[in-house]
Amino acid sequence: MSTDTSPTSTGEQPAVALPNRSSGRDVAALVSAVSVARPGAVAQVVETLTGPQVHGKDITELLQRIADLAKAVIDDCDSAGVTALQDGTPFTSAFTDERTLAVDRDQYDVDEGPCLHAAREGVVVRVTVSESAQAWPEFTRAAVADGMRAFLACPLQVDGVGFGALNVYSHSLDGFSDDDEALAVLISRIGTGLVAGQLQHHRSATLISQLEEAIASRAVIEQAKGAVAVVRRITPDDAFGVLRKVSQESNVKLREVAVRTLAEFGALTN
Asked: CB under 8 Å, gap of 24 or more: what pairs does 9-12 form?
């Protein structure tokens, strides 16, 4: 893999192109090929990520399941984990062992490496130690010291927005195969679908909670409005105006004013 490092017209050296063994094939082609080559592994991925055991799991549990599954089905995988980006800052949200954390830290410390590139650029990265050294020399020196020789990273995206990467590490100098890449991509795609579903569930649950609160507030306000209208012998609209004026002048939410009003009327009638 050659890279053009001749000086530019400004005299500066251009960035070295990323050496990458990734097949570049689309997801359908990758999955189709690995389904023939390794049907048992594909079946395990589908069963693990679509079966009843994932129902009700929170996002942290889902990400851990993704990491554990990658280590279980990908040949030569010695460690796996999930890097997440929070406001651009990476952290390890799931890992199979302490070696995962060590290699992740190697990347975070120098702010470079395969998983960070995959997460930030939205591309699959598959490199051996020699290719990694060309792109990320500082990270590679640290990773080799931790015993890792090959790296595979798949971006994790929800609604087209990247939030992290699945990271797979190996002691093998041979690196990962096309089938390994296909399985990692399949895990990433199904896994991020689960994460998206959970995020949607939380958003829906929050919306439902807000709607329920709004309905409850409206009921209390209507009751207070009726009480004020009866006591002051004014129209419901004028009664609502009274409650709203008290709310604005006291800087208290309208629902709280309504609750207090009903409590006061209750005390008067007892």
From this structure: none
What span, in angstroms and rounded, lies between the C-alpha atoms of 129 and 146?
12
Q: What is the pLDDT of residues 8-40, one digit of tens each?
A: 333 433 344 677 778 777 888 888 999 999 999
Q: Is 9 inside a domain boundary?
A: no
Separation CA 191–CA 132 (nearest Å): 26
| Dihedral of alpha carbons 202, 205, 211, 212, sign | negative
Residues 233 and 155 in one domain: no
Tokens found for residue 116: 């960070």
Range(s) of the domain holding residue 236: 205-269
d(CA 184, CA 154): 7
Return the structure tokens found at 233.
Answer: 């012998």
| d(C-alpha 93, C-alpha 192), whole Å | 14
What pTM value is reported for the model?
0.69
| Whether pLDDT at 203 is above 80 | no
Does 95 map to a domain? yes
Rounded CA-CA distance 83/119 in Å is 8
What is the spatial distance between Cα 200 and Cα 143, in angstroms, rounded to a whole number? 37
If asked whether residues 240 and 112 sit together in one domain, one would say no
SS3 127: strand
